[in-house]
Design brief:
Bound molecules: zinc ion
Distance between the termini: 12 Å
CATH superfamily of the largest domain: ATPase, nucleotide binding domain
Order of helices and strands: HEHHEEEEEHEEEEHEHEEEHHHHHEHEH
Number of helices: 13
Strand order of the largest sheet: 6-5-4-7-11
CATH topology of the largest domain: Nucleotidyltransferase, domain 5
Shape: globular
Number of strands: 16
Low-confidence stretches: 391-397
Length: about 400
């Protein structure tokens, strides 16, 4: 992004980025990574400490002489409300500015109507904050949303699984809360959090985050930036057709990848009921979860194993389209289904190998993010937290 940045602001940004990746770190090691004189690095660190963005922690180890004081990013006294909106339920918790959980996760049933949803979410955020006033000053609310948003993150252009189109969501929520609200497509938020949370010296590289929940979202990082496209709608691989004669998808088309691999698709396969793209979900389906199907599979339930393996194979076939289109270095998968990865990975790999065009692409690294790490809530938190540490106009990463 071409903005007029003073060298000082750029250095400050680089220091914060290195601290995020290497904390806790001594001033000497930081100066070495920066390729700067210790005194120059020390001045930047001093400014950041004065601004409350960096703090000094416990002394580190030293072979001889005085032990160096280690530096950390400072979250002290400030927190973020992270919100993960899904079609069936909405989850929320408080985190610090670097995405660490400060409270247990709460959830409520997602309202089907936008105005009712805004009122409900605002009440839940208020309740969370008043129950945990001791966690500090709330800097804002980050919302990971299952749909396509405009570039400003204020309007839901389309959320097929919720049936919403052109809904102003961010500003009404911010007005009710009296707090800044940052919204982003859930998979793009996860991709942003991966850039921001990357550890060590290695840049995150070209990677794809696939979020499998009630729907399927894909966040793409290319050359260190989240791919957005002209309408901020890039990455909707969930609606790439796997078969034009397949099941109905929430978007109104037939045979989308999402209609084969979402949690609802897995449940409908397990229960032998048609895939239900529209709300409300049938009571029979509402009683079963992907977690319970995985538990049944581990208990020897053949129907559960078959349903999961089919999901795995369809998942691999769809991943092949992503690999053929983007050829990423790494694919990360988040969602409840990853708890069954040991069962389904061979089927995923088989589907992938069947459709990739370059043999070597079949070995593309696929890693999972455990459901208990709450990748979507981390993504939501990073929408607010990362921007506190980032200079305005300078892209994270
Ligand atoms: Zn679709």
């Amino acid at each position: 992004m071409a903005t007029r940045q003073t060298p000082r602001a750029i250095n400050r940004q680089i220091v914060l980025r290195l601290l995020r990746a290497h904390q806790a770190i001594s001033r000497a090691d930081l100066a070495r990574l920066l390729g700067m004189q210790r005194s120059a690095a020390g001045r930047i660190v001093g400014d950041l400490i004065a601004q409350g963005l960096v703090r000094e922690g416990a002394p580190g180890a030293a072979d001889r002489g005085r032990k160096p004081t280690l530096l950390h990013l400072d979250s002290g006294g400030r927190c973020v409300v992270a919100v993960d909106v899904r079609v069936t339920r909405t989850f929320l918790l408080l985190t610090d500015l670097v995405g660490r959980e400060l409270t247990p996760v709460r959830s409520f049933e997602t309202d089907g109507e936008p105005q009712a949803f805004v009122a409900h979410l605002a009440a839940e955020v208020h309740r969370l904050l008043s129950d945990h006033g001791e966690k500090g000053r709330c800097l804002g609310v980050g919302v990971a949303f299952p749909g396509m948003l405009d570039r400003s993150g204020s309007v839901v252009l389309r959320a097929p699984s919720l049936g919403w189109r052109d809904v102003r969501l961010r500003d009404p929520l911010a007005e009710r809360l009296g707090l800044p609200v940052e919204m982003e497509n859930a998979a793009k938020a996860c991709a942003l959090a991966l850039i921001w949370g990357a550890r060590g010296d290695e840049p995150p590289g070209d990677l794809v985050f696939v979020s499998v929940s009630d729907g399927v979202g894909v966040g793409i990082v290319m050359a260190g930036e989240v791919l957005r496209g002209r309408n901020n709608a890039a990455g909707e691989f969930g609606h790439l057709p796997l078969s034009i004669d397949g099941p109905w998808c929430a978007c109104g088309a037939l045979g989308c990848w999402e209609a084969y691999v979402s949690n609802l698709a897995t449940l409908s396969r397990y229960l032998s009921v048609p895939f239900p793209p529209q709300r409300p979900i049938s009571p029979a389906m509402a009683r079963v979860t992907v977690e319970s199907v995985i538990a049944a599979a581990r208990g020897g339930d053949v129907k559960a194993v078959t349903a999961l393996l089919a999901t795995g194979r369809y998942f691999g076939l769809g991943l092949a389209s992503i690999v053929n289109a983007l050829d990423p270095a790494r694919i990360l998968v988040g969602g409840e289904i990853t708890a069954a990865w040991d069962l389904i990975e061979p089927a995923v790999r088989e589907g992938l190998a069947e459709r990739v065009l370059v043999a070597a692409a079949a070995d593309t690294e696929i890693a999972t993010v455990a459901p208990e790490d709450h990748p979507r809530l981390r993504g939501a938190s990073a929408l607010v937290g990362a921007s506190v540490f980032a200079e305005r106009g300078l892209k994270i990463g």
